[in-house]
Design brief:
This protein is an all-alpha fold. It has helices at residues 5-11, 15-35, 41-61, 73-79, 83-98, 106-127, 134-151, 153-158, 166-171, 179-183, 188-213, 219-238, 251-265. It folds into two domains: 13-81, no CATH class; 100-265, Farnesyl Diphosphate Synthase.
Length: 266
């Protein structure tokens, strides 16, 4: 986890908020690892269904029946984390297992981003004590998820997934004939830059919403916003024609962003 962009933003949180944020990260990481695992789809779907059932049972009875869920239970109780968001998270994970997206419509991609990223953002601002920051959380989460999509094209392709929207591919005259065919198309860079433009608009909207609601207690989320915006800038400079060139931010760069943001926003 120490290499993760999220680690450094969470590491400087005080007391129970740090523990609860790590518990949320660990839970999301666990279900994501199941969805992305190498087991047959039916086994991965069954494992996700079992954990989803344990979540439902906990909210209905107060008893935790899953070792995956157990570390998150104190955070659920302490912050009143909404079950609806966890259900949405499982919806997104089950999409990756059962019907992987390949050139989805723009609305379908937005829904997917809401499921797998917006949920985490909503739960995180609950833990940070800013339930009023839901719109900021969703906008930030979509900006981050679109940046991840632009960073992980080949990794997603290996899993049979292609998140570039159908509308963008059509505008670039790219036939969505399958993930590998799209990723080797000469106009791929053009398509990725168009999706990067959408991501930029989400970053701008999140920043505007932050100005409206104020920065109080939100500096970890602001640090993530700044970190991923820097990553998107690096991806733009590198381009998508030759993806062998590394694009990830170094640890020192991430730490610098987090420390600077914490110093301003705490």
């Amino acid at each position: 986890m120490s290499a993760s962009s999220f680690y450094w933003a969470m590491r400087l949180l005080p007391g129970h908020r740090r523990r609860d944020m790590f518990a949320l990260y660990g839970f999301c990481r666990a279900v994501d690892d199941i969805a992305d695992g190498s087991d047959p789809a039916e086994i991965r779907a069954a494992r996700l269904s079992a954990i989803r059932g344990a979540v439902a049972a906990f909210y209905e009875t107060g008893h935790c029946l899953s070792p995956v869920l157990a570390p998150l239970v104190p955070a659920i109780r302490r912050h009143g984390l909404p079950r609806a968001e966890l259900d949405l998270l499982f919806d997104g994970m089950e999409t990756d297992v059962n019907t992987p997206l390949t050139a989805p419509a723009g609305q379908e991609l937005s829904l997917y981003c809401r499921q797998v990223a917006g949920t985490v953002g909503i739960l995180a601002v609950h833990i940070l004590g800013r339930r009023d920051a839901g719109d900021f959380a969703v906008l930030t989460a979509e900006a981050l998820q679109l940046t991840n999509i632009l960073r992980d094209l080949d990794e997603d392709c290996d899993r049979g997934r292609l998140y570039l929207p159908a509308e963008i591919l059509a505008r670039c005259a790219i036939d969505p004939c399958g993930p590998r065919g799209v990723l080797t198309h000469p106009r791929l860079d053009q398509a990725c830059r168009m999706l990067a433009d959408i991501a930029e608009r989400r970053f701008a909207a999140a920043t505007a919403e932050l100005s409206r609601i104020g920065r109080r207690r939100l500096w970890p989320a602001i640090a993530m916003l700044a970190t991923y915006h820097a990553l998107l800038g690096r991806l733009r400079r590198r381009g998508w024609s030759d993806r062998r060139v590394p694009s990830r931010l170094g640890t020192a760069h991430k730490v610098w962003i987090v420390v600077r943001t914490a110093a301003i926003g705490r």
